[in-house]
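Input structure tokens:
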């Protein structure tokens, strides 16, 4: 019956430990990706809100509320959408507000309820909208790189 020497036992132990390191590296890599990509998507949606707030608002208007969402917001299938919006209260008429944002790349619509109708999933403003002259100014974008929805479950 052959006996293993001490050096043979040490060699066998190190051979058994080698697969452990690649597994740990792989798990750490996926953990970083799974936690980082959703944060990056949220940052992209918040950038839209920042763009909206940096743009000049119509005279006698006030930004009442801001919101940013990322995920599969419209349509079916896979994909990551970014939505940023501001709710403004303004003394101006709709045509004047729309003209103010005409060349900005933002969309403007009259807002008559708390429901954000531009999104498929039911999403609401916190502000109680009573009376007139509330407008939603928004921008909707989508991720062109599949990496940003494959590793974020909200885009699947």
């Amino acid at each position: 019956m052959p006996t293993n020497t001490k050096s043979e036992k040490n060699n066998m132990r190190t051979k058994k430990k080698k697969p452990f390191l690649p597994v740990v590296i792989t798990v750490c890599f996926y953990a970083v990706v799974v936690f980082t990509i959703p944060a990056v998507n949220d940052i992209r949606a918040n950038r839209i809100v920042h763009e909206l707030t940096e743009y000049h608002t119509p005279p006698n208007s006030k930004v009442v509320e801001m919101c940013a969402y990322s995920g599969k917001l419209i349509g079916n299938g896979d994909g990551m959408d970014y939505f940023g919006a501001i709710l403004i209260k303004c003394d101006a008429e709709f045509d004047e507000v729309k003209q103010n944002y005409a060349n900005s790349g933002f969309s403007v619509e009259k807002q008559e309820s708390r429901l954000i109708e531009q999104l498929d999933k039911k999403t609401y403003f916190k502000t109680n909208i009573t009376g007139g002259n509330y407008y939603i100014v928004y921008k909707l974008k989508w991720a062109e790189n599949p990496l940003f929805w494959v590793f974020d479950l909200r885009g699947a």
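The chain has a mean pLDDT of 86. The chain is about 35% helix and 20% strand.
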